[in-house]
Amino acid sequence: MLVLALVAPPASAASCADAEERAAPPNLERIELATLCLVNSERTQRGLKPLFRNRLLDRAAAGHSRDMVARGYFDHTSPPPGSVGPGGRMALVGYPESGQLIGGGENIAAGTGGFSTPASIVTGWMESPGHRSNILSRQYLETGMGVAIGYPGQSRSEGGTYTNLFAARDPAPTSGVTGLEGISRVRSSTSRLRTRACTARAGRYRSGARRSGCSPRKAIWRFRSDLPGALVVEVRRRGKHSRRMGIARLPIRAGANRVSFRCRVAQGGLERRLDRGSYVALIRGEDRDGVEFGPLRTLRFLVVAS
């Protein structure tokens, strides 16, 4: 059982959106993304490949978190009736879709209040040798993340219960393992959102921008993808009143890609242009069937001209 201690959040928390958010019903998806971001940050800082999410593993992990809260236990193996461990949960959801499972692991944690944030959870895991070993294993390439509201045996409405599954299969999947690694360059590329923006009111312009508009305001991302599909960019406004602005879907092809993000997102069937302000983008890849691949990337950017 993982016991969380009061410690400072990891340095990587600063680069992962929502790392300090407490688990709550409206933000479970963001909590899961932030936790995976922190886990992958711990790996990449040590020269390891980032894990990429598998939806079947997500389903198994989320089911275990909900079951622990509902039945009031905290363990890797569920109590009878229907006792099952991590390997059994993977098999029940049909993982792996192809190949053979050659290794697996699982981290679980539960916390309330400030201890229910992704930063606190991952810090606790990294300070525990067994949990740390799972996160930093070179064998694992795929992962599943599931968070449920509640604390096993105490509350079904407060706190957060986390399950992180790790898996390796033979043959190892190739799609997505290196698919979006080039997006790590996105932080420097998106500086163009600032340096190439024009301010028409002040009569100043850069990079050949016309005084009447700000058409050069965009980010250019160059990377390689193993699969054709789409780059999905979910944009959220940063600050005290953080909110989801919408999603941009940018077509990509197998091989080399050069993609332009023009600060436009869609929400509720309507397209909107981002106003001035500070934003965070969660970037993932999807194949033609809508299946997520590639490690998640998180970046922050400024829009300085509307």
Question: Could you walk me through the main structural features you see in this protein, from its secondary elements to its overall organization?
Answer:
It is a single chain. The chain is an alpha+beta fold and 306 residues long. Helix content is 21%, strand content 34%. It contains seven helices and twelve strands. Strands 1-3-4-2 form a four-stranded mixed sheet. Helix 2 crosses helix 3 (86-92). The chain is globular and about 55 Å long.
Compact summary:
This protein has 306 residues and is an alpha+beta fold.
Helix content: 10-25%
Beta-strand level of the residues, as a percent range? Answer: 25-35%
Low-confidence regions: 1-11, 174-216
Major sheet description = 4 strands, mixed
Which of globular, elongated, flat, extended, rod-shaped describes the shape?
globular
Number of strands: 12
Mean pLDDT: 76
Q: Pairing-aware structural class of the strands and helices?
A: alpha+beta
Q: In whole angstroms, how far apart are the ends?
A: 50 Å
Main-sheet strand order equals 1-3-4-2
- Mind telling me the C-alpha Rg? 20 Å
Number of helices, counting only DSSP H or I runs of 4 residues or more: 7
Order of helices and strands: HEHHEHHEEHHEEEEEEEE
